[in-house]
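User: Please predict the structure of the protein below. I'd like the answer in structure-token form so I can feed it into my own downstream comparison script.

Assistant: Understood. Taking the following sequence of 437 residues as input:
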Amino acid sequence: MDEEESTKFLWFRFLPGRYPFGSGDLADRVFRARESCCPPRVCGSDNEKPWKTPFHVTFFNAAVNLFLDLFSAFAVMAKYVLTPETVFAVHNAVWSVILYNWYASDLAANMTWTLVSFAIVFPMTLSITRAFVRRDAALSSLSNIRALMCNILIAHCMWNWVGSGKKYDGRTAPPVTPLDKEDNTIAASHRKDVLALLGRVIDAMRSYLLVPRKGRARHFYTVPGYREARWVTWAEEEGGERATKLILRLHGATEVLKAAGLPANEASRINQYVYFVSREWENLRAVKEYRTPMAMRSFTRVVVHTLPILYAPYFLYLAKGASGEAENIEFACVFAGVMAVFMCGLLMVQTSLEDPFDARSIDTVKVDVEMGRSLRMLHALISDTTHDWRDDSPPIETAGPDDLLSGLQYIPHKRRESVITNRAPDQVYSPLAPAAI
């Protein structure tokens, strides 16, 4: 890159709607694919520099993206608004205005909106904020678990040490001082066995994280909710113990390396990785099984459904206007219904974030994608251990998004086994009747 081109690269990459030329092969492929999906193209050809793009083309693309974003925003809003709870709230709000107009029209008054901010907006924003904090904590734990699993697999596949011949061939040679008369050399299938064990750990984690959530008010005060909570608790206990026992089996794989001569300090480091995986897993279990305060969630739900009824005199006041006659009752009903829709939408957003692993929500952790990415990374590391570390070729190559996304879809591991005895819900902890265990 000559001096003139490098200068253009430095200052043109900060212009709105443009991207740096030569920003990387991955970024170039994404931008070219986006241009082919959303014509007209930002660049006339693959070799055309972005700073030569006409301004009207860039402006038109920005306008198209604006309308696409608005349409998508309305689609997301509809996902959370079109629910039975919204229909119920709108029904109550509209009929409260009509009934006040029929039987208590003298109660029309101009009311303050301070109660709405204190009783609804503040609790909802606080709950949503705390739910996002819990989701970010879950993502952090999942990322740490993936990184630790990759390092555990690399340790079992590549770490070497001094063998019996004073050479750096401890993985293939017998140990210097065998602990017993048996052959303590590492089996050729050791790396595949460790990979299979890590795959079963990921499988057990996914099975646990996709269990429906408990902690709803109906789980404590209704008979159907109590029965549902028993089964959810049973599934959480079964899945949590299965994953924990599989994680602890990784210590057995480390003992195989120790018997073959792996130095104690390096074996201790691998066991420390296993401990970190176990610790992050327990953090995930805490995020999964504990929620934001149920009392605040219950209070918010009750206020959402009762506040439009309490504010019906204000809506009736809007209908009367300056004349004092209910001339705009239709507008008052529509305004009351829109208010109920917005409040129920915020309530649905708060509810959808209660379980950070709910697959039906948009903003929660994509468990299948995260677990699929972990499996893909482990298999990629196994295939890359045969390459020399000085090799400058890309370690992972995919043909495109279809190939990559199919690899990110979770496929359960073939080797499944039950590491704990199946128990009925009555045999595990019941959140409602702890004395009945």
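That's the full token string. Confidence is low (pLDDT under 50) at residues 1-23, 39-51, 405-424, 426-437.
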